Amino acid sequence: MPSASAEPVPATTEVNARPAVVPALQQWEGGTGSFELRKHSRIVLAKKQADELDDQGAQLSAEIEEVTGHKPAVSPRIPQDGDIVLSIDPSLADATGGARFAEEGYTLTATDRNVTITAPTAKGVYYGTRSLLQILLLDDGRDSVPVGTAVDWPNYKVRGFMLDVGRRFFTADYIRDYLRVMGWFKLNQLQLHLNDNGFKGDKPWSEVQAGFRLKTDNPELAGLASKDGSYDRADWDSFEDTAAANGVTIIPEIDAPAHSLAFIRFRPSLGLDNGQSDHLDLSKPQTTEFMKSVFDEFVPWFRSPDVHFGADEYTVDKPRYKVYFNEMAAHIRALGKQPRAWGSLSVMASNSDGYDRDVTMNSWNNGWYGPQALKRDGYSFINTNDALLYIVPFAGYYHGHGLDGKYLYDQWEPNVFPGGQSVAPRDPQLLGAMSAVWNDLTEATYSELDVHGLVEPTFGTLAQKMWSGAKADMPYSAFLDTVRKLGVGTGLTKVSTTLAASASGEVSLGKEATASAGEAAAAFDGVRTTNWASGPGDEAWLQVNLGKPVVISKVELDWTPDYGRDYEVQVSRDGEKWTTVASRTGREAAGADTLTFDPVTARHARLVGTQAGKKQNGYALWSMRVFEVPDLALHRPTTASSTEVASLGPENATDGDGKTRWASAYRDDEWIQVDLGSPQAVQRVLLDWENASGRDYDIEVSDDAANWKTVASVRGKPSGARVDELTFDPVTARYVRMQGIKRTTGWGYSLWRLEVRSMSPEPDPA
């Protein structure tokens, strides 16, 4: 016992690490403890900005409900404990963040009482709410924020994505969803390439796809919009509204004088070669006047301060190209917009003398107009380099199956160009970067969701490198795991994450699911912002078909605030006869619950609720995950005493493919064995026999593949295909084999599967 004069030993508390959001926070000063989201937490808007932040408050409330299950009220009153506070302070500055902080930066301060997001602009507040939502989503209980202060801003002004809708129509729902996905990752410019056409190849121009995607009621342009899909003014207004709500600016692009088949189809006299071309004839004054009329019609739709007029890959009339370039740039400025174009001047002119310098350029190819030439000529430019940032879906060129995420994460930032053309980080002429999807393969049959599947895997990586560069401070594999958990954000109607990956041993992800009520699939889709809800009442069930009989020993449930108080986990081989393997009574909170049990073979698993925590709401789960006991033999070296033919080798029994098999010579005393790689605790062996099965055989184990011990025996097994599951007292061994004694047929022994497992489940934490 210490003496009365002994000094007390102070408690040690760890300073909170920087939350792992995407993109990573620029600065973080951690405190101790956490802020807890409470039942009566509110979103409080600073009084002076209540009107300016009202829409953001309502949006954040709905998003917090989607992420956590709690829907906080929005209030202009004085903050109380548990509230989230949003505030605009135009005087707020950060010396390191500078102009980027002033335009889009924010501070996020969490104490044990409140979370406060303050920014110089409403857009900065919005980006702060993205970080808050991601922190909550990644928290185990979805209700905790570590105490500390973040100061955050982007390294670059332009953090973009370009989508070619000219060659392939994308639905309005898809565009709106992508604006939300961009906001989730703090990307801020969506460039829509609104017209283009396919390549001629061996076809006549009359058979080549061409598209223009804006539809107006103006009779002078009637028929210009594509019949296979276009956006009217209401669609475009919805895009602009969605963009504004998600911190994104839409950069509209109308591309000419090349890529102009849609305009030539509408006015054949404007095309070269009597309209047999996708290049406009710039020798005719009416050509430029027509293009000005197109911009006159649609620029009033556009809320962006910038409008893109294309101007790339036109090589047939270089002198008139310069005139067209300068006239269109001046015309767009006369309409109140800043002009943008694709950099092409290294090909179009021996030098850039006489070209309008007040045009923002996309540097898309070093040969056409690389960053060093752009710097020399004084242009502001955006890195859209084709070799690094172009996707042409399913083509044999330009990253047809998606960008190289590991390269981008480990080696790229917006200042990096190939061919020795890189510029200094944050060069004042370099505005940022923009990846691009070009739908060159106009006759291919892929869908807009297929494009999403190619884009999503690197969206988070690009956002990271554009916002805070290399500050993620983790290997690519760990970063990608965080991206998987975050998914693609909130409020989506068309797209969802394609990166959902099962945890080690999970066998339920994406499987067929049913329920007593509600959308059962939401519990098994791997998306952390969707949930299954039963509706009111104490009795409900949720069931998943695992697809085949598997050995399971654990189920994880992630409850929303509408949790179950009393419930059971049941399993079945046939979906009709059920056995209870685990249960819980008296649960009192949302969050994760892990139930473990002795391994059991089942094809179906279900949750059966008997008493809800809130009877009026019933049950709701973010996810139900069913875990298989690992097969220690899977993909391990496997040998046998004989093989009937080379294609029926012993490795087929442990390759995880239920359609391949091993078959022995036509003799009784044949064997198959697997090397587990190191001594393992073994207690269960599964043999999935073909008709040529074993009547009498032993299961043997060994430490050295020389001295064997029998742990289980089968005698007198009936003939015919069947699965034998043999359990025995736990034993440690490196090698396991089936030693045949007698066959059931005149053929040899034949196995579809040989599986080896331990039977020790993980301890139940409850």
TrEMBL record:
The keyword Hydrolase applies. Keywords: Glycosidase, Hydrolase. SUPFAM superfamilies: (Trans)glycosidases (SSF51445), beta-N-acetylhexosaminidase-like domain (SSF55545), Galactose-binding domain-like (SSF49785). It comes from the Bacteria. Pfam families: F5_F8_type_C, Glyco_hydro_20, Glyco_hydro_20b. The keyword Transmembrane helix does not apply. Residues 638-660 are annotated as: Disordered. It comes from Streptomyces yanii. This is Discoidin domain-containing protein. Belongs to the glycosyl hydrolase 20 family. Residues 481-607, 614-759 form the F5/8 type C domain.
